[in-house]
């Protein structure tokens, strides 16, 4: 369980760290919105991980 949570957090941080410089440099609002949608989907998956039973 802890590994899943840490992996989800690391993935979200890496996504932001890799893509946000491009968004800021190009000032592309649409790309920023797509990234935010992706982060919301990642957060939802992480939330579901908290509420599932461990094997």
* Largest sheet entry: none
What is the element string, with H for helices and E for strands?
Answer: HH
Rg of Cα set: 13 Å
Average predicted confidence as pLDDT: 83
Large-scale geometry: elongated
Low-confidence stretches: none
Count of DSSP E strands? 0
Proportion in β-strands = under 5%
Give the fraction of residues assigned to helices: over 70%
Oligomeric assembly = single chain
Count of discrete alpha- or pi-helical segments spanning 4 or more residues: 2
What does this structure look like?
This protein has 55 residues and is an all-alpha fold. The chain contains 2 helices and no strands. It has helices at residues 2-26, 29-50. α1 runs antiparallel to α2.
Question: What would the keywords be for this entry?
Answer:
0% strand; 85% helix; 55 residues; single chain; mainly alpha
Which helices and strands occur, and which strands form pairs?
Blueprint: H1 2-26, H2 29-50
Helix pairs in contact: 1-2
Summarize the structure.
This protein has 55 residues and is mainly alpha-helical.
């Amino acid at each position: 369980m802890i590994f899943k949570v840490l992996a989800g957090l690391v993935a979200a941080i890496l996504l932001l760290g890799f893509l946000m410089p491009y968004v800021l440099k190009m000032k592309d609002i649409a790309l920023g919105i797509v990234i935010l949608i992706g982060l919301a989907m990642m957060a939802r998956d992480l939330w579901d991980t908290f509420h599932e039973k461990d094997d």
